[in-house]
């Protein structure tokens, strides 16, 4: 796994372990435990994100509990996810995508400015044309996430 994914998955596992500890449940991922975790967690995060949290939990627990995927694929867990998604339906709002003309305007605006302005315009042009993610354009503060491959 990529270092950033490992970091996110470890936070998902910490949230699952904290949930089990707070509610006096076994750490073993049964369909009941995972279903309760989904219902609990979707009160704090967007219901659409619960699936990725559950994926991180399953990935982290698989070496210890090999049957975690079976519990994850149970009808109870699937129906709990579907029910939480229906209960919290809200319209997805998206920003308009950047166009090449937007990048051109930014380069014109910032090209004659300070070093930081020129650097920003350069990062914007490289990121747009190279289809990079924001995390690939900046050097992360966390040493574990730093990689010269990107």
Automatic annotation (TrEMBL):
Instruction: Give the InterPro entries listed for this entry.
Output: Integrase_recombinase_N
For the keyword DNA-binding, the answer is: yes
Keyword DNA-binding tagged: yes
* The organism's place on the tree of life at top rank: Eukaryota
Q: What are the UniProt keywords, alphabetically? A: DNA-binding
Q: What one GO molecular function would you report for this record?
A: DNA binding
Q: Kindly provide the name given to this protein in its UniProt entry.
A: Core-binding (CB) domain-containing protein
* Protein's organism: Exidia glandulosa HHB12029
